[in-house]
Amino acid sequence: MPPKIRFSKEDIIKAAMEVLEEEGWRALTAARISKKLDCSVQPLYRAFKSLHEIKDAVVDRMYQLSTEYTLRKYSENTMENIMLGGVLFARDHPKLQAAAMHIGPEYSGKATQSHLDTFQMLVDDPCYKGVHINRLSILYQHAMFYVHGYCSLFAAGYYLDLSETELVKFVKEGVKLLSSVTDESFQYDKSIRFRIQTYIDE
Q1: Rounded to 5 degrees, what angle do the CA atoms 4, 7, 13 make?
Q2: How confident is the model at residue 1, as a pLDDT?
Q3: 69 vs 118: CA distance, rounded Å
Q4: Could you give the C-alpha distances from 167 to 68, 98, 100, in angstroms and in order?
Q5: What whole-number distance in Å separates Cα of residue 95 and Cα of residue 97?
Q6: Predicted pLDDT at 57
Q7: Which of 5, 48, 168, 172 has the most crowded Cβ, counting Cβ within 10 A?
Q8: Long-range contacts of 155-158 (CB under 8 A, 24+ apart)
Q9: Which of 63, 161, 53, 39 is nearest to 112 (CA)?
Q10: How far apart, in Å, are the Cα atoms of 138 and each of 65, 108, 125, 197?
Q11: Tens of pLDDT along 47-58?
């Protein structure tokens, strides 16, 4: 009897990420992953209980990679770093960005936690000391809408040739436009409820 082929969980996650980068979320099947490893599907299920468990690990790895981009220091401005990190991740990994937009509601908790962790970076930034949490919530939410526009274009295959220098300029302009919400004179609509933070009295 030939020896059983064994792959580690890391081997399988790496292969699954390659499938995701090359073909997208819908192609993430046991058959595609095993083909990438040049084996049958059996070794996959020795390491993982199910395809769902493999996908769960892949989503974690995808958000880990996205967070690495967000944590890079592109400038001295935390908001610029957050926005530029998101945009550059989408430009460099358009298929992963597309997957993040279409992975389904069962992974929404992971997306929410990722946003909460990123939002905490703003809360902890001395630059925003004294800015009410409501205003930071609005700033972050609008920033995500702004970034999502670029990310959607990259996920669809458009403007992938934009350089980091060009994107830095776009993001800096965006931060200037959005930062007005942190000014006390800015009157925001308190009837709108944002996902990141429930409003408290200001």
Answers
A1: 150
A2: 43
A3: 11
A4: 18, 19, 21
A5: 5
A6: 96
A7: 48
A8: 155/90, 155/94, 155/95, 155/97, 155/98, 155/101, 156/94, 156/98, 157/94
A9: 63
A10: 25, 20, 16, 9
A11: 999 999 999 999
Find out whether 13 and 57 touch, Cβ atoms under 8 Å. yes
Task: Give the pLDDT confidence score for residue 195 in this predicted structure.
Answer: 55
Give the pLDDT confidence of 85-94 residue by residue, as tens digits. Answer: 999 999 999 9
Give which of 61, 86, 55 is closest to 152, Cα–Cα.
86
Which letter, b or e, does each residue of 117-155 get, where b requires 16 or more Cβ atoms within 10 Å of its Cβ?
ebbebbeebeebeebebbbbbbbbbbbbebbbebbebbb
Which residues have a Cβ under 8 Å from the Cβ of 33 and sit 6 or more positions away? 12, 15, 16, 19, 41, 44, 54
What pLDDT, in 10s, does the model give residues 145-197? 999 999 999 999 999 999 999 999 999 999 998 888 777 777 766 666 555 55
**Residue reference for tokens 């429930």:** 198
